[in-house]
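Section 5.1 Outputs to date
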Amino acid sequence: MTTVTAKPSRRIAMRLPRASTVLACLVYAYLVVPSLVVMPISLSEAGEFTLDKARLSLNLFRQFFGSEAWLAALWNSLQVATAASVLATLIGIPAAYAFARGRFLGRSTVQMLVISPMFVPVIVIALGLYFLAAATGQQGRFSTLVLAHAMYGLPFVVMLVLSGMTQVDPALEKAAMLMGASPARVFLQVVLPQLKIPIFAGFLFAFLASFDEVVIAWFLNGPTTITLPVKMYSSIMWENTPVIAAVSTMLTLLSFAVCLLTMMLGANPGAKGAEAGR
């Protein structure tokens, strides 16, 4: 009887991974296909969906790069995303180290507050920042938008660096301290070299989160700080131009490139081993 009942359960156990793989592929297709549909539209002459090679054209991309308004929005997004991701990285690295190694009152509460932007609805964050900026007279400033996006991207840096800290051997830090190294020197010369990949991945995700963010930017932007996603949204509302398809394609390719680069870094055990051995 034991042998008879074991065979069906074994078959079920073998089928479950296949079923979960099929289900995962269906979910991924549901998420990705709408983005892929935009690409043929961006490559058509009139902004229509077509697979006819004779009708393919780069006209929409030429219109984008020939428009001062679109290029200004792109430049604003690049400036804001770069500044915000650098600031989030500079704050997130010591914060993650403090959460991983520190022992202080309220550590869990502070950590939850730092990563809360990942769970709080973005519209709530945007409204709170809007009221704060309006009350302090900082509405529409470049620095205000950078600080807001840095706060929005900070959880990505903290979580990735915290994950990387699990691979850092505390014995190396203790050995360096026993040799007379100061805490700052231990952090800079022992810990940071082992966290290059998580830090770079956190920077990339913070950059992408800022570059693609539209709700916070919509509430905080001014006439000279309109970002690319805000420009896209306003164009949908008022212009309905097919150039949006070209912009969407470029954003999709940018997101795909960042995710692919992050996966390549995470799947390179040789690089990790070399960094840990230094």
